[in-house]
Amino acid sequence: MTDLVIRRLLVDLKTPLPRHWNGGDAFRTALFNALSMSFPAGEQFFIDSVKRGLARLEGPERERFEAEARGFIGQEATHRRIHQLFNAHLQQQGLVNHWEPRIHRRLKRLERLAGHEPRAWLAVTAAPEHLTALLSEYLLSHPEALEGAEPRLRDMWLWHASEENEHRCTAFDLYRALGGNETWRLRLYRLASWHFATDVLRQTLHNLWRDGTWHHASTWASAWRTLFGPRGLVRTQWRGWRRYTAPDFHPVEADGGKAERWLAEHAALVPPVRG
Ligand SMILES: [Fe+2]
Ligand SMILES: [Fe+2]
Predict the structure, then answer these.
(1) What is the pLDDT of residues 44-62, one digit of tens each?
(2) Rounded to the nearest whole angstrom, what is the distance from the C-alpha of residue 185 to the centroid of ligand 1?
(3) Which one of 26, 53, 189, 238 has the minimum C-beta count within 10 Å?
(4) How far is the CA of 57 from the centre of ligand 2 (A)?
(5) Above pLDDT 70, what percent of the chain?
(6) CA of 43 to the centre of ligand 1 (A)
(7) What does the pLDDT read at residue 1?
(8) Distance 163 CA to ligand 2 centre (A)
(9) What does the alpha-carbon distance between residue 170 and residue 183 come to, in Å, rounded to a whole number?
(10) What is the distance in A from the centroid of ligand 1 to the CA of 64?
(11) What is the pTM of this model?
C-alpha cells in the first residue's frame, strides 16, 4: 500500500497569467492548456470510481485500501480545485473548453453500458492514470517541456506530475482487488488512449485557433519538436504506453524517485494538509 499525503499548493493563481505562459511558446502553451481543461471533469470521475470500488470491498480488503483511497481522493480533489482556478484564466483569455462536455457525454455512455459496475469504472480510470503517470515522468525528466514557463505554473505542473506519479498504483490495484480481468483492462485502455489522444489534439488545435497562432510557422516547428523530436512525447513515451498491455505490467515498476525528490525539495511550497 502506498502512503499518500494530501498537500496544499501555496501558489498565487489569482494574479493574471501571461497568455503564452509556457516560455512564450504558443504550441506548448496550447497543449498544456488543453490538458488542464480535461482535469476537473476527468479527476472527478477518478474520485467517483475509487469511491465506488472501495465501497464494494469488504472486511480486511477494504481496510487494506481505505487509507490509500482517502489519500488518492484528497490529492485528485486538490488537483481539480487548482486546475479550475487555472482554467478560469484560460476562459478569460477567450479559450473555450470543448473537451469537458465530451468527457461528460462519454461518461453518460459508460453509465448506460456498464451501470455502476465499479470494475468498468476502475478500468476506465486506471488507463488515463497510466497516461498521466507517463506524462508526469516526461515532465519530471524533460525540463525543456516547461522551459521558460511562468514559475507559478511550472510549480503547479510539477506538483501535479509528482502526485500523479505517487498515486499511480491506486486505481490499478483496486481494479485487480475487485477481480477485474485482463481482457477488459486492455480493451478499455486502448479505447481510453484513443479518446485521450484525439481529444487532446482537438482541444490543442482549437486553443491555437482561438489564440490566433495556429498559422505561425514557429507554432508547428514547436509542435514537431514537442511531439516527434528525439526527446519528444511520442518517441519517449511510446514504450511506456505499450508496456501497459503486457500481462506482467504493474504501475509500481515506473521510476518514482524523481517525483519523491521534487516533493521533498519543495516541501515548503506543498505542505501537507493537517488533520
Ligand atoms: Fe491529478
Ligand atoms: Fe491521478
Answers:
(1) 999 999 999 999 999 999 9
(2) 20
(3) 238
(4) 21
(5) 99
(6) 6
(7) 66
(8) 7
(9) 19
(10) 22
(11) 0.97
Cα 167 to middle of ligand 1, angstroms: 9
If you search the block for the grid coordinates 495556429, which residue do you land on? 214
For residues 43 and 35, the answer to whether their CB atoms sit within 8 Å is no
For ligand 2, an ion, list residues with CB under 5 A: 164
Closest of 150, 144, 145, 143 to residue 18, by C-alpha = 150
In the structure, what pLDDT confidence band is assigned to residue 116 with cuts at 50, 70 and 90? confident
Mean pLDDT, range 75-82, rounded to an integer: 98
| CA–centroid distance, residue 92 to ligand 1 (Å) | 23
Per-chain mean pLDDT for the chain = 96
Residues with CB under 5 Å of ion ligand 1 are 76, 79
Ligand 2 center to residue 95 CA distance, Å?
Answer: 24
Scanning the structure block, which residue is given the C-alpha cell 470500488? 53
Q: Is 237 exposed, middle or buried (0-12, 13-18, 19+ CB in 10 A)?
A: middle
**Nearest bound ligand to the CA of residue 39:** 1
Give the Å distance between the CA of 39 and the centre of ligand 1. Answer: 7
**pLDDT for the residue 274:** 75
